Amino acid sequence: MTEALVEAPHRGLPRLRRLFVILLLGFASGLPLALTGGAMQAWLTVEGLDLVTLGFLSLIGIPYTFKFLWAPLIDRFDLPLLGRRRGWIVLMLFALAAALLVMSSLSPSRNLGLFASVAVVVACLSATLDVVIDAYRTDLLQPAERGLGGSLTVLGYRLAMVLSGGITLIWAEQWQSWPQVYRVMASLAAVVGVLALVLMPPLPARFKAPVSKASSEVWGFLALVLGVAAGAWLAHQLLVLVGLDPDSSDRWVRLVFVITQIAAAMVLGLGVTRWVRFETLNASLRSYFGMRGAGAFLALVVLYKVGDAFALSLSTPFLLKGMHFSQAEVGLANKTIGLLMTIVGAIVGGFFLLRLRLSTAVIAFGVLQLVSNLGFYLLAREGAGAWGTVEVPAFNLLIVHLDTPTPMDGLLLFALSLDNFAGGMGTAAFVALLSGLCGTRFSATHYALLSAFATLGRVFVGPFAGVLADAYGWQVFFLVSVVVGMPGLLMAWWLRREVDATTRVVEAG
């Protein structure tokens, strides 16, 4: 009995370390996203870019959708010294810091093309960081820890999103300088890199890279890249041949070019991998699609978050340009009430994940996500000031504080609170589901494949969202976001038994 009591704390401390690292890496994963999304949209809105252009610039997030294509290289190759997964995480964090520093030195109004190119590099590094962190978390946590791990991931992720997508707006207004904001974010990414280097525990020895010929992996990836480029070029030439103008002022024509080129790039790029051996990609895809119900699960992953992603794709331009709130007002609302509701949502989500069937949580939290979109619809219909102002008292909860009592728009607070609360709960269930679908040998590629398809909504609805909001207004836009989210709930109901099975069976890969 005495020996057991002595050993218990030593078993508990490694678990606490693992869970803290999961929280830290969730923060690291969420930090860059707004810097190529909401925060960047705010910067470009201040610079005077139009709504349609902002919609098309959401395609900067394409790397998040294509990340499963290079995830096999993460599975196949480990960097020296730090062991499996950890070396990639530290390298990506320091590379992100450098790329954000470069981004801060550019002017989007004077050189939008170069600015967008560097933003794409940031998105590529961020997407790659997501790949490694997701795989590391999947390998590190025991099946019984995945619900809590998912909740901590969401908490860290949403804290970072509130910082980079909310507090940065306050800084930008106070400092009158978005470049300075991005320099601060670059420094923070470097600090997180140092913490990750010191704190991350190594993975158990059983987690090893798949065995394959290194040169064939590199050549396979290069062939894939060439196939993607060739597909995009051929689609562009074909559309020009049929008489369409890529520089047309018609927003629908531009949308056709974007969607057709992306589709052709994917088809030809994946087709090339059948002729040129890219063994880790092919083996990992065979491993996933060999699982019973793989196609149906993939459909669920695509559809589950699409309604939420649609509503959020232009939320920053909506609040700044559509509702005419100031950057500081939006940032302050996100920093205080938004952040508090994020914490509450993640905690409540984790509590229910420990007690409910996963299918029940996925369905219930998905319904709440769609309902939260109606908060923005109500704001668009009623307008700023419709619910008056609410004086938020001063408080200090260490992680979030308000120095003095501050009046805020009541309807804005309601919409942001509902969105953050629902988003925290829905993502916690979603992360637990994705972790259960990943095999151990190919966890990076499996998770990257699933999470990449989950970003289809966030990335590809952007151009359509910009055109729709510009043509029909914000009220129609947010109502459409609810409609497009309903098929995901139907899929979750249809697959409820299979969803529950992921908590009991861990695929060997």
UniProtKB/TrEMBL annotation:
InterPro entries: AcetylCoA_trans_1-like, AmpG_permease/AT-1, MFS_trans_sf
Matching SUPFAM superfamilies: MFS general substrate transporter
Keyword check for Transmembrane helix: yes
Transmembrane segments: 20-43, 49-66, 87-106, 112-133, 154-172, 184-205, 217-235, 255-276, 297-320, 332-354, 361-380, 411-435, 447-468, 474-495
Gene3D superfamilies: MFS general substrate transporter like domains
Protein location: Membrane
Membrane topology recorded in Swiss-Prot or TrEMBL: Multi-pass membrane protein
Keywords: Membrane, Transmembrane, Transmembrane helix, Transport
NCBIfam families: 2A0125
Protein name (record): MFS transporter
Organism phylogeny: Bacteria, Pseudomonadati, Pseudomonadota, Gammaproteobacteria, Lysobacterales
